[in-house]
Write a sequence for this structure.
């Protein structure tokens, strides 16, 4: 593993002003993430974890402090440059999938490439769908897919621009236990293949599938610890009963 952090944050603060009220979402945090890590960001609502993820994902700016992404001083970028970095270097997966209801899986995955000027959009989108076991679902719309399949489309969309980091915000929160394990197995496989993954979660068991857990409370990091023996999602799956029709079962 490289000794140069892919993410380096120093003394980062974020304060929201609402009238005369100041809300301190982040209170001078410092954090490093190495390439190839799989890190869970955990904490109760209002702890600052989502604010941090928005800043790391170039969706928001810090009030003060420094943030370097692959050596780039992100905190000093203007909005246009932030958008470029976000599209090229970040892949996002959300709890509610965020798919367009009348658009096929293939076209959903092509969307991030509309902003990058790629010429081989369809071929790359098909390859991304194949990477999550959905090569035969390209023509399907969200209503024609299970929740797990929709989340896989979202993961394929996050992968298609070959991002440096995949940001996952409660990616199993809308899924049943078995489907959630299937999605975690995909993230673990992507991590083994070298992707850096940051995952926001409220769920202890989900965090234990990662290699490291960073815990937040009241805008501070209160713990940053390795997971000694991360849970293996494929092993967990093997212990769960099957309850879906055979034609809905997907290879991981």
């Amino acid at each position: 593993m490289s000794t140069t952090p892919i993410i380096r944050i120093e003394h980062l603060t974020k304060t929201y002003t609402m009238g005369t009220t100041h809300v301190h979402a982040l209170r001078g945090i410092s954090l490093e993430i190495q390439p190839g890590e799989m890190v869970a960001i955990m904490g109760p609502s209002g702890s600052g974890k989502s604010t941090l993820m928005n800043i790391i994902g170039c969706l928001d700016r810090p009030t003060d402090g420094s943030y370097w992404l692959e050596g780039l001083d992100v905190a000093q970028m203007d909005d246009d440059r932030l958008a470029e970095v976000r599209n090229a270097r970040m892949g996002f997966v959300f709890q509610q999938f965020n798919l367009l209801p009348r658009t096929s899986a293939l076209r959903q995955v092509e969307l991030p490439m509309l902003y990058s000027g790629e010429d081989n959009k369809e071929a790359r989108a098909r390859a991304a769908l194949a990477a999550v076991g959905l090569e035969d679902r390209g023509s399907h719309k969200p209503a024609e897919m299970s929740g797990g399949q929709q989340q896989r489309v979202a993961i394929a969309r996050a992968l298609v621009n070959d991002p440096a980091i995949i940001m996952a915000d409660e990616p199993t929160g809308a899924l049943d236990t078995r489907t959630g394990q299937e999605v975690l197995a995909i993230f673990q496989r992507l991590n083994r293949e070298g992707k850096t993954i940051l995952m926001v979660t409220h769920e202890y068991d989900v965090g234990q599938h990662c290699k490291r857990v960073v815990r937040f409370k009241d805008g501070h990091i209160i713990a940053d610890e390795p997971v000694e023996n991360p849970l293996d999602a494929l092993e967990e799956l093997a212990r769960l009963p099957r309850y879906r029709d055979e034609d809905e079962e997907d290879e991981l």
